[in-house]
Amino acid sequence: MILSPSLLSADFSRLAEELAALEAAGTTWLHLDVMDGAFVPNITFGPPLIKVLRPHSGLFFDVHLMVEEPARYLRDFKDAGADLLVIHAEADRHPQRTLSEIRKLGLRAGLALNPGTDLAPVRWLAPDMDLLLLMSVNPGFSGQAFIPRTYEKTRAARAMLAEAGADHALIEVDGGVCPDNAASLLEAGADVLVSGSAFFGHKPYDARLAAFMNAARGLAERPGLRAARVWRAVAPHSNP
Ligand code: DX5
Ligand code: ZN
Q1: Which of 83, 106, 208, 240 is the most exposed place for a label (fewest CB within 10 A)?
Q2: Fold of 2-233
Q3: Using a 6 Å cutoff on CB, does residue 5 contact ligand 1?
Q4: 0.90 exceeded by the pTM?
Q5: Where are the beta strands (DSSP E) in the chain?
Q6: Which residue has the CA at smallest separation from atom 9 of ligand 1?
Q7: Is 174 among the catalytic positions?
């Protein structure tokens, strides 16, 4: 499994130090929640913040766009240093085109679904995605309670991806994830777990990472996940 800590719960007054601490603890991904105040009832940050963080970190930037019609900003996020762009099916009239555009930019493409959204888009968009993000809370805020029906949805999504011949695609679960529900999510077919409040609130980070990684003990790693460990954007980002 890969843990993708959500920056939203980090100390915003000292982000460069937070990124250094994450890398020192052994994390490899960073989840960046972009909110536009229209698709979700909250506003966070956009490409300028990602751009200033990029030179401070070699982490894989997993950018979650909670933004209406995200196709308008793909180039901006690429230039800022994103590695993976995840768009919401509910926010994009033409998600197939947007996923293709993301790949054309040389980035990994992900599709996110809200808790109340059916898996139907997966059937037709599976070949266009490198990752499927299943929201296990309604997007907008960290610190919300995990919705248990996500286990069943994860199992169904994994089966649907296999049926569509897209078993390479990763499943990422986002919202209310903690060491207590991590094992069940991995058993259901998740590969990447996002954690905000349940990660950053618990120092030291290396011990917290170990608590999440313990959940994966005894589970065989899927080939798709092994392949994803070497994902990088076209221009590799340098560590300072
Ligand atoms: C919610 C965001 C999540 C959030 C996760 O809209 O997409 O990534 O930061 O935070 P926790 O783990 O606290 O639910
Ligand atoms: Zn997120």
Answers
A1: 240
A2: TIM Barrel (3.20.20)
A3: no
A4: yes
A5: 2-5, 29-35, 60-66, 84-88, 108-113, 131-135, 170-174, 192-195
A6: 142
A7: yes
